[in-house]
Amino acid sequence: MNVQQKSVNEFLRILARRWAVITAITLFFTASAGLISFFVLSPEYEATAKVLVNEINAETATDTGDAATSFYQMETSFKLFETFMVIAQSPQVLDKVVDNLGLRDSYSQMSEKVAIDRVGESLVIEIKANASNPNEAVNIVNEISKVLNQEISKIYGENQLSVLKTGGEGDVVTPVNPKPMLNMIAAFLAGLVISVVVASLLEWFKKPQIQPAQPQAQKGPVFNSKLFSK
């Protein structure tokens, strides 16, 4: 049996001897994560709205031909898309949303609740909001869509957005956070690793420490006293 096999066998023997410690620590971590997820952390609900950035009117864009017109429309629409996403996350929009809904959130607090993303390579803006109340999350995304459309109409003088989906349509009412099962699995793995380390340390401290041998004092020659008694 080589050294590596001996080490593996010794490790397995440690696990067998300390199974109670390993089980207790692992269960403690897993149960704690479950209790915190279910009873301590506040649930968060998510709502989603989608708006489409309308293409620029070809008649007002250019008169240089169909191919050039289509290219100009596409290029201008994508530039507007990036601009609209910035406007959607600006204080100009989010502060009005807070005021209109009668919320107490500051701009920074509201911006943390809201996520503005692009759907693939399309001209669709996806607006997501998380809140402790599902109705509040729905109201936030719908109000952002409304205020964003109003602000863009003021700037560009025409309706540049079309609402594809309002908050609440097809949204699942179950909380998106916390995720108890995911938290418990992570806690189980962490508890298992920590418990194995603790078991190994207990075995190491239990082993008798071999003290280095003390050098014996050198004894001198032994003389027979009878030789000197004569």
TrEMBL record:
One of its GO terms (cellular component) is plasma membrane. The keyword Transferase does not apply. It is found in: Cell membrane. InterPro entries: Bact_polysacc_biosynth/exp, LPS_length_determ_N. It is a multi-pass membrane protein. Pfam families: Wzz (PF02706). The chain crosses the membrane at residues 20-41, 181-202. Its main location: membrane. Residues 9-101 form the Polysaccharide chain length determinant N-terminal domain. Signal peptide: none annotated. The keyword Cell membrane applies. Keywords: Cell membrane, Membrane, Transmembrane, Transmembrane helix. One of its GO terms (molecular function) is protein tyrosine kinase activity. It comes from the Bacteria. PANTHER family: FERRIC ENTEROBACTIN TRANSPORT PROTEIN FEPE, TYROSINE-PROTEIN KINASE. Belongs to the CpsC/CapA family. This is Capsular polysaccharide biosynthesis protein. It comes from Domibacillus enclensis.
